[in-house]
Structures are given as C-alpha cells and as structure tokens.
Design a protein that fits this description.
alpha+beta; 35% helix
Length: 159
C-alpha cells in the first residue's frame, strides 16, 4: 500500500497469501504476518465488562457511520461486523484492520491514522484491484458472528 502497486490475480497466484504486498513482510521465514493479528467477526460477548468500557466504547466513536468496529486489544485488531454489512463492508473492515495492525505500535492516534488512510487510499486501492481483474464484491468465507448497533448518528433529538 505504501508504493501503490497492486498485483493481478495471476501474479499473486504463485504466492500463498493474497493480501496487499506492502502489508506482508517477505524478508523472513518467521515473519509475523499482519493477517494473524486481525480477528474478523469477533463476538461482543468475547469482551469482558472492563474491555467494553475501555476499548469498545472508545473505539465506537471513530466508526459512527461504518458497518464495523475495530478494537485494538494486546496488539491485535478485533473486527466486529454489523448485522447489515455486505461483502464490500467486510472487505473494507479487514483492509482497515490490516492498516491498524501495521501501525499498532507506531502511532498513538491509531484510529485517526487508520481512518485517514481509508479516506485517502482505500477507494484507489479497490479500483486498482478491480482494474487488474480482482472480484471485490464477493467473499470466499462467510462471517459467522455479526452484531447490531445504530451506526448512523441520530439527527433529531428523541424525547
């Protein structure tokens, strides 16, 4: 993602992982792959009360219009997917989580920096994928756990 290079499916087929090449360190056989730090489809019940207060509620303010929540716990990024999310939302949540995982120990404003990347680079990245033949509108594995919350701020005051 740093160089803006996107490989076609044919170029990637010889590699085991199909993640953006800049998010994977190929320099070591014992590399700590970023995708292992992303837990997609986490259950809210996996958080204890203190974690809900500490992590989940503070992260929720960054994702008021998104159909996913990203929560950093112990260097990992947990992805909570909304019940009404589609394949594009799940893909976006995963890529967004990879960006956070890459910067988890580098940035104090992790969510702000991640959102900045998504705002500036995500659509460009997706268009590059599509132009090279990637099918981004479908997923190979379904997300089992989904949660429900109101993801758009209310415009009107409720009495």
């Amino acid at each position: 993602m740093e160089t803006g290079q996107v490989l076609s499916p044919e170029q990637v087929s010889s590699h085991e992982h199909v993640l953006p090449i800049q998010l994977i360190s190929w320099s070591s056989k014992n590399a700590n792959y970023l995708h292992k730090k992303v837990h997609l489809g986490m259950r809210i019940s996996s958080f204890d009360n203190m974690e809900i207060k500490e992590h989940l509620l503070s992260a929720a303010s960054y994702y008021t219009k998104a159909k996913y929540l990203l929560v950093e716990r112990k260097g990992n990024i947990d992805v909570i997917v909304h019940k009404n999310s589609n394949a594009a939302d799940v893909l976006k949540s995963f890529i967004h989580a990879l960006v956070l995982a890459k910067n988890v120990h580098k940035s104090k404003s992790l969510h702000s920096e991640g959102q900045k990347w998504v705002d500036n680079q995500y659509e460009v990245f997706i268009q590059k994928l599509k132009s090279l033949g990637w099918k981004t509108e479908r997923l190979l594995s379904p997300i089992i756990w989904r949660a429900y919350w109101i993801y758009e701020p209310l415009e009107e005051k409720i009495d």
